[in-house]
Structures
1.
Amino acid sequence: MNKLNANKFSLAIGISSIAIYVSCVILMSIVGEAGVIRVSNLLFHGMEFSNIIRTDIPFTDNLIGIVASFVVWGGIGYIIASVYNKLLK
């Protein structure tokens, strides 16, 4: 089995998290608050999101969220690749 390049894997995970984040922002702007609540309730059955959904998110908050998502998920990707490589030995 081949080892994973931890840097490339973490970069891939980080970029993927940005794509997911931006997709969610776009979805929220297209379907509106009622649509976001409906989709959230369908994805997480048994939970009610009407009290916690916020669609009026400032642009700067979205930028901070994108950076935070990249850093957090990139770090998680690095840890996963590192653990995987250690377990191969």
2.
Amino acid sequence: MNHQPLSNVPSPCVGVCRMNGATGWCEGCLRTIDEIALWSQLIDRDKLAVWKALPLRRLELSPPDA
């Protein structure tokens, strides 16, 4: 049997699951469809890399200060 250890890195999913056609990111968690689909298979290091990208993606979506 192939058992993977449980991850200590939680999913960023917030239950708002709609893909933005312009960005390719989920409107709730800002992950790509590939990041969402592969989440359970990623090792913690890769999950943390996704988490690290999310604030930068959120900044890209924020309107510039007027």
3.
Amino acid sequence: MMWHSRLSALRRQLVQVDYWQRVGVLAALIAAAIAVTYSVHKSRQYLHQLQVLQVERDNLEVEWGQLLLEQQAWGAYARVGKIAADELGMRNPAPHDIMMVRP
């Protein structure tokens, strides 16, 4: 009888350890599933944010190109010369108005 009670007590301990191991493994599996779901969700959010930023970058590059063209048009020598002559009344000096300075 003594061996029988010891054996049944040992069996109960093993069953309890096995039960807690299963609970631990199940908890680990649930935690891993939640972590994978969360990481997939975050990666999709980051991908969407990246795509939005890429569209914004492309729009800014187009605007930058347009501004460069506008800057070149406003700063063209022919335009500056025309405005100087028409609006400011500037002209090239006559040859007798030019003075040479020697060092």
